[in-house]
Design goal:
six-stranded antiparallel β-sheet; Maltose phosphorylase, domain 3; globular; Beta-AFase-like_GH127_cat (chains A, B); Non-reducing end beta-L-arabinofuranosidase (chains A, B); alpha+beta; Beta-AFase-like (chains A, B); homodimer; Glycosyltransferase; 6-hairpin_glycosidase_sf (chains A, B); 671 residues
Amino acid sequence: MSNPQFTFRQTTFTHPSLILTRRTTICRTTLHTQLAQLRANGQYDCFKLKWHPIFDDNSRWPAPLHLFWDSDVGKWIEGACYFLADTYDAEIDFAVRDLVEMIRSAQHDDGYINVHFSVVEPGKRWTNIRDMHEMYNAGHLIEAALAHRAYYKNDRLMDPLNRYITHIRARFGPDAGQLRAYPGHPEIELALLRVYSATGNRDAYDLARFFLGERGNPAGQAGQHFYDWEAEQRDEPRWKRPNSWPMDRSFWYCQAHAPILEQETVEGHAVRAMYLLTAAADLLNLSNEIKPSAAEAAVALAKADEWLAALRRLWSNMVHRKMYLTGGVGAVAQWEGFGIDYFLPQGPDEGGGYAETCASVGVMMLAERLLHADPVLNGEYGDVMELCLYNNVMTAMSADGKAFTYENQLASCDTARSEREDWFVCACCPPNVTRLFGSLGGYLWDYGALGEEGGVYVNVHLYTSAEVKFAACGREVRFEQKSNWPWEGRVEFRIKGAEGLDATVRLRIPAWAKGQYELMPSPRPGECTFDTGYIHLGPTYIAEHPSFSLDVHGFEPRFVAPHPYTNQRTLSLARGPVVYCVEDADNEWEENHFRDIGIKAGERVEDVWRDDRIRGEKYVALKTRGWQRSPEVLQGGGDGVGRELVFVPFYFRSNRGGKGQMRVGLRDDGR
Amino acid sequence: MSNPQFTFRQTTFTHPSLILTRRTTICRTTLHTQLAQLRANGQYDCFKLKWHPIFDDNSRWPAPLHLFWDSDVGKWIEGACYFLADTYDAEIDFAVRDLVEMIRSAQHDDGYINVHFSVVEPGKRWTNIRDMHEMYNAGHLIEAALAHRAYYKNDRLMDPLNRYITHIRARFGPDAGQLRAYPGHPEIELALLRVYSATGNRDAYDLARFFLGERGNPAGQAGQHFYDWEAEQRDEPRWKRPNSWPMDRSFWYCQAHAPILEQETVEGHAVRAMYLLTAAADLLNLSNEIKPSAAEAAVALAKADEWLAALRRLWSNMVHRKMYLTGGVGAVAQWEGFGIDYFLPQGPDEGGGYAETCASVGVMMLAERLLHADPVLNGEYGDVMELCLYNNVMTAMSADGKAFTYENQLASCDTARSEREDWFVCACCPPNVTRLFGSLGGYLWDYGALGEEGGVYVNVHLYTSAEVKFAACGREVRFEQKSNWPWEGRVEFRIKGAEGLDATVRLRIPAWAKGQYELMPSPRPGECTFDTGYIHLGPTYIAEHPSFSLDVHGFEPRFVAPHPYTNQRTLSLARGPVVYCVEDADNEWEENHFRDIGIKAGERVEDVWRDDRIRGEKYVALKTRGWQRSPEVLQGGGDGVGRELVFVPFYFRSNRGGKGQMRVGLRDDGR
């Protein structure tokens, strides 16, 4: 099983590429400002296990403010190692090494590593696996160790984490004397499966598989749901519940209301759901990869078909009923998670609009895994991955790389303006953006040797300018793409080193292109087929045209209406994979968060190329005509005031000052 | 201060009257079936203070299932006494007398009356005033006692309740040694003010005024919010909270997040809010009534202008931003209460649609009180009162008087069909409908002597066929109205016994009439003025025309669109005060709860008179053309299937079997 976190090293981005622009900013700026934040806020030194004033804060229960610090450090290390692989930076290198030594020094003799339970509540390890994030933190440290190992080619961080895995494996599992627990916040499962994949550590695999299979067991521990049993041990009545639980026993908050295979809809905290399903997809990927000759029968997944069905079912429920136009998921702030089907308010003043950054990073992880785990190469996975990338994920960081969003509402209001922050008390999102962009090369494509007769394949999921080198059939194959995506649909490809090999190339045609594209040179009948979102170019075509180009249509601006069952009277603009918004920075007359602005689907929309020198950004803005009508004017049937509206990409919002007024879906005024 | 609960006796309904039809059903059927339910479920005998198996049920915290039993009995007695005043019924009479003796026997020597704390937790009286409904139950018993006293002309029930009031007054208040508590569920406040008004009991007034003024005090008890202090006494952490509280310290749930005068928006449990504001309006009413000569200076309300401002502010927030088209309020099921502004989903599958029956009964109470408390006679109060009556309240009982709704969603879904139940575990709504209809005569109008020069006035708020007799200036004045409201707009009036007196008559012109009406005979210039929703007919006109008629326009069917900020793409039909819905009983082809049906505002709508002999109902149904289009057809721009749609009054839903599919707001397909 190869994940983007391993394979990204084989890809190099080239110009022009919006992804490369962001990667350069992160490498030059973000890694350093995030490091400065870690130093300023206490995380950097936390593994020294000294007391910090924040440890006295009891304002939040059950998870105190510093409970995620281990993971903050882990995620930063992971992102740093990905970028070091691209560009050496002495300050970053030093900090990684320093942090690794501190983590090593914080390990207990029995392998345990956790700041809170070492310093603040040393006697209470593993007494609240539902809420206290020990396994979540462990998971991120493990992912850091894998990134560290890949870059530094040593086990200074992997060693202690392997010992920690052994510690956990001994305590949790199906055997006598073990607790049948599973983490309240999934994460360790996917980390463990990556450890197994990279190092063959069977403890890691067994533990992940146990966690995934045991989750939601109504009678796992002493005939009780583990979280009920555990709460009883803590002497907590069922009524005492975290603020994120609307009701007692809201186990759906952490996807533990039923075994995964029995879950009909995607529920609860969106990040947890995405990390969990990513791990489930990895479990399936590992099972799929078993060769007849392999001795790895242990990773054959019982009920593999049911795991595939569950993943498809939950994916489909999310994508078709619970996802914003921007790729955001998790509409409800209270549990940072999924609401009921079609419940997608644009912002807090409409009753939702959370759409956490980490959740869409998680959607991208899941989508990428499903491109492998699902035997059908389904363009929807790639479409959604791209949607998240250019919208809900990219909007989470400012163009200068210094400010972030946690929530990504589609409309501002007075109590939630469209603004970014330098950092957060719970700082999960900023380093998640960092590590996603660090490993993004691995999301572009997959490739390798094909079959037993000496063929190679490249499946291209994301378009940009980049090159990948990989070994296949004893050769080094190089595959290049060059384009001005996401602004223009023309992509030029070149394959080298595959001469004489049967080469198959599959190219995703986004759903918004409505099947409209051109290949140059044109394939002869039979040389190109189209199926479930991908065109398949066979060996004959590739052999004849090692350089060829694709022109994807659909880059004219389009009006997008929400699903009828959302019952929303809104209309948005999109162009290619990019979703647009209006901001007061361009529309300075706006005073009411664009609540009173309507647009019409038939109206002309004009492309305007912009080169924002201050922000170093080139993008296509859109212009169309709208109508400003107050409720009174509207109900009276009046025409209101005509307005020339300027739209910018949603990801570009909140980069140019202004009043923080923004909206994606405007009132639909019909045709 | 006179409330409808006192004045209704002066009004007699005549035919034709939809209200009279319902009253007859309740009198003949509902009182008996509800009595049978009380007998079958344990409430009837609960004041015998014997153990009942349900007392063993610990499944609900903090309020066990039987906690409301005292109020169930109280509300039934209250409703029964109202109807006995109209029609004697030996079985009902016997049951009231029997229940009263049982209540008397259940009183402790110190005056305390409460089933739960007498039988189940005798040591825990007054330890959880936030959740345990002692005062709520007391309030309903007090209202029962007032109704009983008015009908039976004795104090068999009033006496023990007066002793209970003395008991409560001794424990709670601002003095040393008293607790600065106030009930989690308001109700006792309005009951106490009615006691004061009927009997002059100053303890009752002082207690109500203290409760209303103290509510939401952030530092009332030992420098703490009372509910924080009280929870500490119970050794409960702030995290342990009822299921209705989305967050810890959700004091807004019971309107205790801030003092009433400082509350900017109407929040929390809708019934609690309505009962509370009704009491606040009564406090203001009592203050307004002080005559210069009266010795009642103690009921002069400090900051009366601020109380009026708060009542207007909270009313306006509710009516303009948080009320359904049907007069339902409280969109959110979890706390049975108000959501954010403009958050009005039609049903559970859209994320809300609770609209509890009791809440709209409460809106009617509040509206009626505000017609007196507000120095401006504002037609909006009357409009909303009527809206609730003919829609969210009337829909809560079946035409046969035997089945009820608790929640009144505007659209059904598979998990919440449009159906009624015989009874509820928490049986607040059915007897609330009973007592509302029992006292409904008091809501129609107010009247009396006017000024010091021997004049009389009648303000007519609701139209139907009825007659009122009242004493004024030493005479008996009779005022009649006759109409086929709510189907036809013509109302004939006659005043008798006012000869020689200056008589002023004010008639509400509903907002949906858009100011269109005719008086016959036509008034001369200056004889009729129109202001804030009422026409004012002066003494000259009335003296000349003791019989006159009003013809209110606006009974043609109209399309109603929601406020633009609800962002909903729906359209509904209404006619006069009646809001319509589609049901599968008329539209038998429907299989998807009318989610796929659109209507157009320009389309022709036809009135169809129906005489439903089985249900004994005459009403106007509506017919128009709609378009059935699935999401796929709609997104593809297809025409779909044309459908002849039949609409019936929302109040008439779920009377004729069917599949329980119903919807008020259909997809708006434009013009």
